[in-house]
Amino acid sequence: MRVLVEIVHPANVLFFKRPMAYLRERGDEVQVVSRHKDMATTLLDSLSIDHTPVSRAGSGLFGLASELVLRDARLAGIVRKFRPHVMIGFGGLAISHVGKLLGVPAVAFYDTEVAKLQTRLTWPFITHLYVPDSYQGKVPEGRHTRVPGSKDLSYFHPSAFTPNREIAVANGLDPQRDNFFVRLVSWRANHDLGKSGLSLEAARPLIARLQTVGKVHLSSERPLPPDLEALRYRGTPLDVHHLLAHCRLCIGESATMACEAALLGTPSIYASTDFRGYVEQLVASGLIVSAPEPDSDSLIRHVDGVLARDRGNTAAARDAWMQGKPDWARMVVDALDRHALRDPARGQVVN
Fold first, then answer.
1. Do both 67 and 31 map to the same domain?
2. Rg (CA), the chain
3. pTM
């Protein structure tokens, strides 16, 4: 089977890493098309995954629209040459257009209800959509499947990842005191248009509070002033989750990283007004604290509340939430097998 995988965000690399390995192990041919977005291409290179960049993340409505036109055109050329039996992506905007145009099944996994512009441009054309059971946005009727859990179970399922303390120390963990991970985002994605989050003015008192009790690791998509730049995480991108798993607390604007921390057993504070169904599910399970008013005073109160808890409570809540949740990496492969172009007489993929 020939499979085309679309990577548009760093988190997509982790999501598709194990499914791509499974496909190649059984002899399938995989082609990866990528996008210059934050660390996405760097992560692919670090994993020695061959990929073809076809666009660079645009900025603003005009920039994103221009990028999409270019991405659709370049992707169509690659599809004509590679002739995949099925295409897959997280979100699946470009593959949905090209798949509809060229008659190739396009399968997407997605979890972001607030991405209304993207979903309006994708769902009419996508072959099939897979969403978490917590997803509360619109879906293509008759062409979607709800799955228990969240996307992080493709790479943080207990069978897939074990945090390593030595790797965490090699990437900045201070073993003598508590460590804190702070994440700031750029707010440049299509679902971020017109939105903003934690300002540097609000972040400074929060960081100062955390520094009184431990070491701060700052990850930021934005440029930072010199004093905060000194706190930037400088470890290997692929090893950041070993560090995150050994932190006392993760706090920031990234829903993806808040969820990752929670599934690693690290308490997390999500400082944003953006609604995500999977975040709300983890909030209800006691794994994430929601901070919809991300000012410094309220965030410090949330931090103090988390630090007063028994550290074992989060791990116990995580284990309870994990019960019965499937390995999403296996589900990705199953979805590809289910939707690939096949000869109706023989049931085999079409050559």
1. yes
2. 20
3. 0.86
